[in-house]
Amino acid sequence: MARKPARAQELAPPRPETPRRARAELEFEEPAVLGALFGQFDANLVQIENRLGVFIGARGNRIQIEGPEDSVARARDVLKGMHGRLVSGHELDAGAIESLIAMSNEPTLEGIISGSVDAPPVMIRTRRKTIVPRSATQIDYMRALASRDLIFALGPAGTGKTYVAVAQAVSQLITGSVQRLILSRPAVEAGERLGFLPGDMKEKVDPYLRPIYDALYDCMPPEQVERRIASGEIEIAPIAFMRGRTLADAFVILDEAQNTTPAQMKMFLTRFGQNSRMVVCGDPRQVDIPGGDAQSGLADAVRRLEGIEDISVIRFSAADVVRHPIVGRIVEAYEGRAD
Q1: What is the edge-to-edge ordering of all strands in the sheet holding 311-315?
Q2: Is the pLDDT of residue 141 over 70?
């Protein structure tokens, strides 16, 4: 007699593992900073709770964290990082907390904030503030700015490419390691045609260079910025003004570099002089060169130069956006959209 085929046993899908629960307690010895640490109506603690899915209870100078094991560990590191920033005299706002949360997967988070003998903190000091990394990629970027001759910083808006470069340039000008700051960008409208602008040459190009001015004023007192511009220590000019020059003893930044042509980029890069450092910032996805089919000098330069000694290429992503968290989600939505 033929045997009946065995009936296939239906297997239930495996049940997802329940995350292990954990509890951690922190005690802070500086009561003067607790108000700023918790935030108004405990807003800072609520921000961490919502982002990491934990419960945080505060009593006096003690904080208790409960939730999934991994999230509790991250929340503990974020709170220690927040406390370290406040004790060191750094600002603490929602953006800084969001950045600490984003970096809480990085094993170097605590060392970045507090530093040690073997691993000094990664930071840039200027007249007005001290800048510490706000994303994992900014750690690599700051280290490259301190050690490499030519750095390409690629990525979307809001990742700190230009701001951090200007802060490093100001720091080196203050310490005397460079004699001049030269800040440039191509005078290309972002998809608009503004027509002829009134005024002298400075008044015509200033609208294109406004983001660079904003970063400068954030790092130096306004009167010092104006005095150094008047003396020529700080020069802000469109890229066309770079032709025929040799930029020695200078920290040179080219912003919005995706809007250069290959010929412009070659001209700019070959201005490099003795004791100089050059940073080229841009978003390869946001090319506004007139003509539509024109090749971006930024993409061309990275293709040719990546891998050469003393040249670093730092790539930022939407995960590195340090503006409002919604900016990162907007960037991700546009990057994932099929054109």
Answers
A1: 234-238, 180-185, 250-254, 277-282, 150-154, 311-315
A2: yes
Answer positive or negative: Cα dihedral of 114, 120, 124, 128. Answer: positive
Q: Give how far Cα 189 sits from Cα of 38, 194, 208, Å.
A: 43, 7, 8
Looking at CATH, the fold of the domain delimited by 124-336 is given as Rossmann fold (3.40.50)
The answer on pLDDT for 51 being more than 90 is no
Burial of 34 (0-12, 13-18, 19+ CB in 10 A): middle
DSSP E strands, 155-288: 180-185, 234-238, 250-254, 277-282
DSSP letters of 146-177? HH-SEEEEE--TTS-HHHHHHHHHHHHHHHTS
The whole-number pLDDT of residue 105 equals 64
pTM above 0.70, yes or no: no
150: confidence class by pLDDT, cuts 50, 70, 90 = very high
CATH class belonging to 21-114? alpha beta
pLDDT at 116: 38
Percent of the chain with pLDDT over 70: 77
- Do β-strands 130-131 and 250-254 pair in parallel, antiparallel, or remain unpaired? unpaired
